[in-house]
Amino acid sequence: MKARIIGTGSYLPEEIRTNYDLEKMVDTNHDWIVARTGIVQRRIAGDDECTSDMATIAAQRALEMAGLTAEDIDLIVVGTITGDYPWPATGCLVQAKLGAKNAYAYDISAACSGFLYALSNANDFLMSGRGKRALVIGAETFSRIIDWTDRNTCILFGDGAGAVVLEAQEGDSGVLSCHLYSDGNYWELLHQPGFGAKNPASAAGIEAKLPFLRMEGNEVFKVAVRSLTKVSKEALAANGYTSADVGQFIPHQANLRILEATTKRLGLTSEQSFINVHKYGNTSGATIPIAIDEANRQGLLKEGTLILSAAFGGGFTWGSTLIRW
Ligand code: UT7
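A: This is the predicted complex of the input protein with oxa(dethia)-CoA.
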């Protein structure tokens, strides 16, 4: 018995913000952004769009591909750190919008690793026999927690959502393993200081820009490459595979240089590695399910294809999964 992906979906908001648009907002330029990050453009949610809206559309597309209705779903897990509200969970809002009345729903806060954490959670749920089908979603509206006057961070992130439907099925195809890690000692290198219990809402907090993301990019970069490589090797070794067996490497899309360094250290070819960071930037917990959906719809994922996925993000959190399609 394995948890198999039987449907994928994604949603990217319409508005495209290019590097040239950013040149008009902060002291940066297209060539610098492309050279340091590989990012050419990112999508920005409309004023009337929020995380649950994008997540719901991605989920509907995944359900449609799976040939299911929302009522067939037993569990909804959303990996997000930019939910509509601090609470209730965005998962509950998605449940209501979908009409998934037989599911229970919650969010997972693991930043860019949110989708892999959610996938692991849903996999455990299905393998325990508590339910038959789960919706696993990664959805973020990072544009709302970005300081658009900070050139160090505003060039990197974008908005979007991706979803997969997991079903417990007999056979060898599905999620083969999940390896997850955290190290809270690094929390300060990538975080959002306000507003929460530590720094509750205040006019002084707004003045100090506490609701905006803060990042020590250089430090994050170094740990990210090391951790992604190690946890990817662990996934392969745990299942008795080598890099040559990987059909598609679908990592978290943060920065092309991180992706290329990791791909090289793993001994993977560029043909094995799926990259779309140039189009969407870093959509945090949404990058992996968006990429899985794109790879799937491009026909790159065939029955039996071995998919290696790895993510790294705030917390720090990181992890990998190996999936047989
Ligand atoms: O999903 C996990 C979350 N985050 C990440 O994965 C991010 C990981 N880190 C990164 O992607 C990279 O560290 C960045 C893209 C954020 C920065 O690239 P970098 O090669 O580490 O550049 P840097 O921070 O060392 O900055 C180099 C120079 C600095 O100037 P000085 O001090 O050398 O004069 C920056 O002020 O580039 C300057 N700079 C910029 N210049 C033009 C920083 N941002 C910009 C900008 N445009 N947007």
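The pocket of oxa(dethia)-CoA is lined by residues 28, 32, 36-37, 112, 151-152, 155, 190, 215, 217-218, 220-221, 224, 254-255, 258, 282, 312-313 (CB under 6 Å). The radius of gyration is 19 Å.
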